[in-house]
Amino acid sequence: MPQTDNTPEAIHEARVWRDERWTARVIKNEDDDGWAVAMTLHTESEPALVGPWTMGRDKKNPKPLDVSAFHTLVKTANEVLRRHEQQLYAQLNRNVTVSVGGRRVQVALAIVPDEEGATASLRALDDFDVELGRVAVPPTFKLTVASATAWAESGFVRPA
Q1: CA separation for the pair 8, 97 (Å, rounded)
Q2: Is the pLDDT of residue 1 over 50?
Q3: How many CB atoms sit inside 10 A of residue 19's CB?
Q4: Distance (Å, whole) CA 104 – CA 33
Q5: The pLDDT of residue 3 is above 80
Q6: How far apart, in whole angstroms, are the C-alpha atoms of residue 109 and residue 129?
Q7: What are the residue ranges spanned by the domains of the chain?
Q8: How far is 96 from 16, CA to CA, in rounded Å?
Q9: Which of these, 91, 83, 102, lies nearest to 143 by C-alpha position?
Q10: Under 8 Å between Cβ of 49 and 76
Q11: Of the given ranges (50-59, 122-131, 145-154), which has the lowest mean pLDDT?
């Protein structure tokens, strides 16, 4: 991949290894006499992953980074980010299915975080993914089977 102004230069050193997206940095473990490795995504200030690092043969200095270890660390750090994104998505998006008037209705709550104030909406779909209703709700709205049923039974009027 060609180098651009905002793409970091590759580094392949014993204690620092960097590619286009990630930097692995071997650091002294503050908690004991060992070493740790911090994986930081380019443009981020905090590491996505910090874990123990292997001691070298002299049992004093850290084992040097190499391409194989770096690729394993990148895979692990990407997995940590993916799990974090999934957890955040699950916290911000909930859905329940209820039965109203003899038909199934899927009700979804979606919360959009924002520094100036989160927003949220309720959306109802039938079995054919046809939208039956959509309303804005406070981000503190609690989506339960009871609240979804009440909303559907109201004709999808904004909940009080």
Answers
A1: 48
A2: no
A3: 18
A4: 60
A5: no
A6: 15
A7: 11-65, 92-153
A8: 47
A9: 91
A10: yes
A11: 50-59
Q: What's the token pair of residue 32? A: 């004991």
- Beta bridge partners, 122, equal 109, 135
pLDDT given for residue 91 in this prediction? 87
Count of positions (residues) in the chain: 160
Residue 79 has pLDDT above 70, yes or no: yes
Angle (nearest 5°) at CA 117 between 149 and 154: 20
The predicted-structure confidence for 26-40, as pLDDT tens digits, reads as follows 999 877 778 999 999
pLDDT one-digit tens code per residue, 127-145: 999 999 999 999 999 999 9
> DSSP readout, 89-137?
HHHHEEEEEEEETTEEEEEEEEEE--TT--EEEEEEE-TT--EEEEEEE
Q: Identify which of 12, 59, 62, 13 has the alpha carbon closest to the alpha carbon of residue 36.
A: 62
| Phi and psi angles of residue 101, each rounded to the nearest 5 degrees, phi first | 60, 30
Whether the full predicted model's pTM is greater than 0.85, yes or no, is no
